[in-house]
């Protein structure tokens, strides 16, 4: 299948004392990219209208590879899906230092996401339409 690619915008306020985008903000940029993918009009999660369709982050790991300098330009984030299971899936985020695929990679993060029923606050299995949506972004090759 194919990855999801979006652009996110670090802010001037996101820089640290070394004039790099702070490492904690990198995680926020990954979260923003995930939101671009998961909460589009065509996704099963659009509109947050069904509490039975909640998702939670169960695990997060980040490999920081290069400093991300604040330039005022957006940065490219590629999101792949893997390990799609009945109740969980992994989202791999590749954050580039600029808007292009050719820009060096600043960080690669993997997030284990689990289905969650917001009202009952209990884990849940993913619905078939959720799994079908995610399957569109499953990528077998490893990038970054």
TrEMBL record:
CDD domains: 4HBT
Protein name per its UniProtKB record: Thioesterase family protein
Superkingdom per UniProt: Bacteria
Parts forming coiled coils: none
InterPro entries: 4-hydroxybenzoyl-CoA_TE, HotDog_dom_sf
Segments crossing the lipid bilayer: none
């Amino acid at each position: 299948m194919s990855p999801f690619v979006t652009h996110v915008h670090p802010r001037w306020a996101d820089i640290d004392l070394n004039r790099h985008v702070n490492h904690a903000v990198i995680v926020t940029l990954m979260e923003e990219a995930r939101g671009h993918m998961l909460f589009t009009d065509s996704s099963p999660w659009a509109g947050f209208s069904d509490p039975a369709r909640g998702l939670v982050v169960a695990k997060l790991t980040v490999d920081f590879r290069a400093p991300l300098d604040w330039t005022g330009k957006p940065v490219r984030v590629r999101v792949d899906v893997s390990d799609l299971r009945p109740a969980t899936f992994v989202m791999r985020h590749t954050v580039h230092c600029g808007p292009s695929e050719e820009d060096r990679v600043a960080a690669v993060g993997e997030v284990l996401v689990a289905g969650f029923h917001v009202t009952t606050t209990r884990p849940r299995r993913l619905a078939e339409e959720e799994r079908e949506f995610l399957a569109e972004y499953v990528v077998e090759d490893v990038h970054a």
